[in-house]
Amino acid sequence: xxxxxxxxxxxxxxxxxxxxxxxxxxxxxxxxxxxxxxxxxxxxxxxxxxxxxxxxxxxxxxxxxxxxxxxxxxxxxxxxxxxxxxxxxxxxxxxxxxxxxxxxxxxxxxxxxxxxxxxxxxxxxxxxxxxxxxxxxxxxxxxxxxxxxxxxxxxxxxxxxxxxxxxxxxxxxxxxxxxxxxxxxxxxxxxxxxxxxxxxxxxxxxxxxxxxxxxxxxxxxxxxxxxxxxxxxxxxxxxxxxxxxxxxxxxxxxxxxxxxxxxxxxxxxxxxx
Length: 273
Known about the structure:
Residues 75-231 form the Metallo-beta-lactamase domain. This protein is α+β, with helices and mostly antiparallel strands.
């Protein structure tokens, strides 16, 4: 019996004797099955290979990024947010080993885990069990959980206050329950963690919004207008996305400018070609 892991997306499935017939995350139109076909591994195999390690990087006071090198699965970055004796792991990665657990415990451990959307569920249950932490997932994405656990808490509504200064917001778009994290960090201007519900593009002055990034399926204008209107009520100066792309300042203004440009492009008002 093994907890099989999809090699393409890195999401772990509940225990079974044989490999699952398919990965429901990857066969859905927002993701993809590798051109090499559906392949499976296990966390034990990843650790035994000695190929991977997690790089934990100090970003600023109270914030570390956590990323697997070399890249595994989608290659996202998780973030350890340290907020007044409350450590939150924002989003998750597949790889976890004793060295990772030791280093994070040296930083105060993990009190809770929160997920932006199903592509980053990875081995979230392994992380939750290692740190005895609850996992917060919006109930609108309940159907995408591939490994059930008593650690998972399905929350509802439009926002959830985990602690003063740490708020989850359901904004939808990429997934129905797509969630972002607002962290005030005892500063005048806060930080927004967006997974790839919002994606920082190559030109760091801009972001974009997509239903599917690998398959280039855009979101409709009314959805982007709604997301932009919701984000306009938040107080943030800086923005981190799932791939360690950062807008260091004026992030709120840049998100609004990007939404306006995106909408203008889809409504045939930005350019002629």
